[in-house]
Amino acid sequence: MTGESRTSALLPTFARADLSFERGEGPWLITPQGERYLDFAAGIAVNSLGHAHPHLVEALQAQASKLWHVSNLFQIPEGERLARRLVDATFADTVFFTNSGAESLECAIKMARKYHAVNGNPERYRIVTFEGAFHGRTLATIAAGGQKKYLEGFGPKVEGFDQVPFGDHEALKAAIGPETAAILIEPVQGEGGVRSVPPQCLRGLRELCDQHGLLLIFDEVQTGVGRTGKLFAHQRSGVTPDIMAVAKGIGGGFPMGACLATAEAGKGMTAGTHGTTFGGNPLAMAVGNAVLDVVLAPGFLENVERVSLLMKQRLAEIKDRHPGVIEEIRGEGLLLGIKAKVPNTDLVAALREEKLLSVGAGDNVVRFLPPLIIDDAIVTEAVSKLDRACARIEAAQAQLAKGAAE
After folding, report:
1. 73 domain-assigned
2. Where are the beta strands (DSSP E) in 131-277?
3. 287 near 56, Cβ under 8 Å?
4. Alpha carbon distance 10, 13 (integer Å)
5. Beta-strand (E) ranges in 186-234?
6. Considering the chain, what is the average pLDDT of its residues?
7. 359 touches 369 (CB < 8 A)
8. By three-state DSSP, how is residue 187 classified?
9. Both 324 and 214 in a single domain?
10. What are phi and psi of 335, to 5 degrees?
11. Is 324 found in the same domain as 287?
12. Interatomic CA distance for residues 59 and 47, integer angstroms
């Protein structure tokens, strides 16, 4: 319809940038016009192995030519294999596959409540969570996160969640009562501003749960599958949860998630208590196994740790060079946060002008979430783009100051 503008038929729940991409290569995204953007958003920590990774492409194409969907009424061998590999690599004894992080959290919440119910304590259904957390967009998970901006307008908040301030140990202890079933926490808050939970605090949570007979649930949707340099972030502290929710990076870009648990924590989830139509489908399982092939290969996670240390060092140099723009560098592994002194939306926009994609977060933070496959040369290129973006902001500030003085 030449000359006419058409309103999008999409529900306008996203403030989308006026930018689209035709294809991707590793850490790069390419527009229809051929412009190349360095992708340090990675689909919000999803494209863990970059774009069009040959091993993932081969696995998906091979499976797509055989079988897409059969439902969980039948055996799915690739799902059995992926579950066994996850169990062998973690604390868990059992796995439930989902399509998203929110679904993985829903499974974790139901599992914690069911555990106490089958133990004869159905009154124990409440879960302690932390201010600034983000656990998903379902009615239960927005209640778990507790953020007003996500709750407003959706009716009464789902009962059963008690938020405490991040890092307030006394408030945490006071929140535990006879109805408490579990504690739910992200080892690093992603959406909340890339705020890490210190290892000693995770150990303290484990002790508190053991003392009160609670289940410890880790939300590793954003932090898992190598993002912090370990397969899962909690492994950095030596603390093990009873239940863990996973998604994002586990599918390398294909929609999938998982809820992992010990046999004890999952003992109430018997046949008919929970289900999914699409979760664990053959396409997702093929890709999930392919992701693990790469991430669990010898030396891969060690290289993530090495590159992330280099990245953090180089970001610290940029902070020192632009103290009026950058206040602090945060994060673990390749889940990195730049706390800005200017509005984080301005920094995201300036980075985009330099063809570097990033993601905003709470506490005025800009997240760098590059694919785990980046090398030293990509780090150098990204840091150069950040340097120029900061200089761009400083030039604009100087121009404003000059105009105000005249």
Report:
1. yes
2. 161-164, 180-185, 188-189, 195-196, 215-219, 243-246, 257-261
3. yes
4. 8
5. 188-189, 195-196, 215-219
6. 95
7. yes
8. coil
9. no
10. -110, 90
11. no
12. 16
Q: Which of 376, 358, 332, 378 is nearest to 40 (CA)?
A: 358
**pTM over cut 0.85:** yes
Could you give the percent of the chain with pLDDT greater than 70? 99
SS3 assignment, position 222: coil
- In order, the DSSP letters of 273-284 are SS--SSTT-HHH
Residue 235: DSSP 8-state: G
Q: Amino acid identity, residue 246?
A: V
Are 290 and 307 found together in one domain? no
CATH number at residue 27: 3.90.1150.10
DSSP SS3 for 37: strand
The count of domains in the chain is 2
Torsional class of 229: left (φ above 0), alpha (ψ -120 to 50), beta (otherwise): left
When pLDDT is averaged across residues 237-248 and rounded to a whole number, the result is 97
* Domain enclosing residue 276, as ranges: 54-295
DSSP 384: H
pLDDT in tens, 299-320: 999 999 999 999 999 999 999 9
